[in-house]
Amino acid sequence: MPPAADHADNWVSPLVRASAAWAWRLLLLLAAAYVLLEVLRLFGVVVVPVALALILTALALPAVDFLDSHGAARGGAVAFVLVFGLAVFGGILAFVVNQFIEGAPQLVEQVTRSIEGTRDWLINGPAELSRDQLNKAVDTFTEALRTHQAQLTSGALSTAGTIVEILAGAFLLLFALIFFLLGGRSIWHFVTRVVPPEHRARVHEAGAAGFHSLAGYARATSLVAFVDAVAIGSGLAIMGIPLALPLASLIFLGAFIPVVGALVTGFLAVIVALLAKGVIYALITFGVIVAVMQLEAHVLQPLVMGRAVSIHPLAVVLGLTAGGVLAGIIGALLAVPAIAFFNSFVRVLAADDPGARTQELDNEDGPLVDAGSDEPQPSPA
């Protein structure tokens, strides 16, 4: 270093020099993370179906391996599990839609009575509004709909385009799921070839740990979502709330977004109860949802999720928030599974003794690899 530069550098505190060194490195890391997120967002049509396929693989792989180990051909086992899963999902969906169609007229009738009761209360109650004022308010609302008709139409066209993207993504998801179940371990083995040989075994162990946590998260979340849907749906059915089964199905789907998913979808049940049964039933419905959420937070999550994935609740909330800001509902859905995977992946990758770290995870969460196999099974499929 030139003497002048050395002399000038002596005027800077070592703390400032260290802070500056950290600052430009952190800026580079943030820039790299930003570029990575933008690339993922740009290829979201591909990334999201593949990520969902990995989660579904974590759920279906034990069944495929069980059939494979009992003499069934691998391809036949995959076909059976997929056809069975699609049949169950399609049957449930058809049943829910049928229930919705049958229950909609009753809901419309009850909502109509509620509207008429509200109209009478506004006219004869403390508000003492005239019929002309109510009719004027209705006409204003109708005129607003007509004024924004073009925007509503463009929104419908945008929704149609979104449906096309969803169908394309569903096809890619199914295609990826089939190949993950057929030969995901071989795919992971091929991917790790890009890693230098001296680090390849460590990456294998990290991949096994990450996928094991992802599988545990998927199974635990499915169980928690099922319990939420059954508990809230039973409460709605006991109170005679219309569309109890479709609402329970929405709660089941929403529960896959931890912490807030079931609460947000349950709010729809509160609205239906308010329109169909009145304020008292709406408050009771809200109380049932809050009670189930408390049961989930203090009993189900620690017993079920805590055994499968060790993630601090603050990390879950921050991950959900960041995922929702970056990618909306899909981001919130995939944030926690991604945290579960990379939490175990990085812990094993950064461990001083990967074998000891793997054994530690094994003792906590179950086997990461098949001890009876000559070939390690670290793949995410």
TrEMBL record:
Pfam families in the record: AI-2E_transport
Gene Ontology CC entries for this record: plasma membrane
Segments crossing the lipid bilayer: 20-37, 43-64, 76-97, 162-183, 223-245, 251-271, 278-295, 315-342
Protein's membrane topology: Multi-pass membrane protein
Region Disordered: start-end pairs: 357-381
Main localization, broad class: membrane
Keyword terms: Cell membrane, Membrane, Transmembrane, Transmembrane helix, Transport
Compartment annotation: Cell membrane
GO biological process terms, semicolon-separated: transmembrane transport
Family: Belongs to the autoinducer-2 exporter (AI-2E) (TC 2.A.86) family.
The name this protein goes by in its record: AI-2E family transporter
